[in-house]
Amino acid sequence: MTEMNKLPANTLFIEVSGSGLPEVDGLYVPSEAPPTKSEANVMSSRGYWNGKLAWDRADGKAARSPAISYSIGFKSWRICRLDGHLAYEITCEDELPPTDRQWNVYKMGVAPAPKVVIHHSDPR
Fold this sequence. Notes:
- The chain is an all-beta fold.
- The chain has no helices and ten strands.
- The strands form three sheets. A four-stranded antiparallel beta sheet has the order 5-2-1-10, with no helix packed on it. It has a four-stranded antiparallel beta sheet with strand order 6-7-8-9, with no helix packed on it.
């Protein structure tokens, strides 16, 4: 059994609102993306990307899964648009996407940056 298989299940939900891109706003659920090697050559596992929790859009419309994930190379949390291009990021090494600081507009994002809320159960 690998170290990634020992990680606890991702049971958190994320709500993104108020972004400059309404397509980014919405509910994100624990990622179900199949195991894949990341850009940092780290094998993902269900609910995780680069060793940290990860989320997919609840509506399944994003071209990139996970749609909210952590980048080891950039040391940042990232949120993508529906087309998979990155829209927002926040540089930090926090275990969860920060909810107490302003996110940055990234290459394909539009101001304002979104508000991020973490839910401990499905808010639906």
